[in-house]
Specification:
By secondary structure, the chain is mainly α. Helices cover about 30% and strands about 0% of the residues. It is elongated and about 60 Å long.
């Protein structure tokens, strides 16, 4: 499904295969149920995200994204610093 997420016949075939396996295997049914509950709360790709930053001079981190799972950490210069440390220049965001 990752290769062709809009392929409805393929999705239906997968759904039927999972249902058949769950009907035949209680442990699989339980594991599938444990996966399914939190998976139903995910909302990926449902909306349209438009990111735009313009004008001015920015002195801090910015994140442009639709979905982020987990945390982001930015390493930024100490408050009041006006220039990057030697060798850091304009390298873009730093993710840790």
């Amino acid at each position: 499904m990752e290769e062709a997420p809009a392929d409805q016949p393929r999705a239906q075939a997968l759904s039927q295969a999972l249902a058949a396996r769950a009907a035949a295997d209680g442990d699989f049914r339980s594991d599938l149920g444990q996966w399914h509950e939190p998976a139903m709360t995910l909302r990926v790709g449902e909306g349209r995200t438009t990111n735009h930053i313009s004008g001015g001079t920015f002195h801090g981190p910015a994140v442009l994204a639709e979905n982020i799972s987990g945390g982001l950490t930015f390493t930024t210069p100490a408050s009041g610093s006006t220039s990057p440390r030697d060798g850091e220049g304009d390298r873009g965001p730093h993710f840790q």
